[in-house]
Amino acid sequence: MSYMLPHLHNGWQVDQAIQFEEDRALVIRFGHDWDPTCMKMDEVLYSIAEKVRCTLLYQC
Fold first, then answer.
1. Which long-range contacts (CB under 8 A, 24 or more apart) does 30-39 make?
2. Beta strand pairing call for 55-59 and 25-29
3. In which domain, by residue range, is 47 found?
4. Of 45 and 1, more confident
5. Distance set, CA 1 to CA 18, 48, 60 (Å)
6. What is the pLDDT, as a whole number, of residue 38?
7. pLDDT for position 56
8. How many whole angstroms from its chain centre is CA 22?
9. pLDDT, average across residues 9-30
10. Which of 54, 60, 18, 55 is nearest to 38 (CA)?
11. Which residues cross the membrane (predicted)?
12. Is the pLDDT of residue 31 over 80?
C-alpha cells in the first residue's frame, strides 16, 4: 500500500510540508516501504485517509 500514499523523498521535502501547510495537521510515517510493520501502518493510514480530511498523510 505504500504506493497509495504520497512520498517525501528527502529532508527538504519534509521541511516544505511542515512549513507551508497551515490549515491541516500532518502525519508523516518514517520507515521503509518493505518493512512489515510499515506496510501495515500504510494500510491503516490509507484506509482512514478519506475519513480524516483535516490531515495530510505522507510517508518518508
1. 30/59, 30/60, 31/59, 33/2, 33/59, 38/2, 39/1, 39/2
2. parallel
3. 2-59
4. 45
5. 23, 13, 14
6. 92
7. 84
8. 16
9. 91
10. 60
11. none
12. yes
Quick check: 17 and 34 in contact, CB under 8 A? Answer: no
pLDDT of residue 2: 59
> What is the arithmetic mean of pLDDT over 41-58?
86
CATH of the domain at 14: 3.40.30.10
pLDDT of residue 11: 93
Report the first-to-last Cα separation within the chain, whole angstroms.
Answer: 14
- Cα(52)–Cα(32) distance, integer angstroms: 23
**Domains of the chain: total:** 1
* 3-state class percentages of the chain: helix first, strand second, coil last, to nearest 5: 45, 20, 40
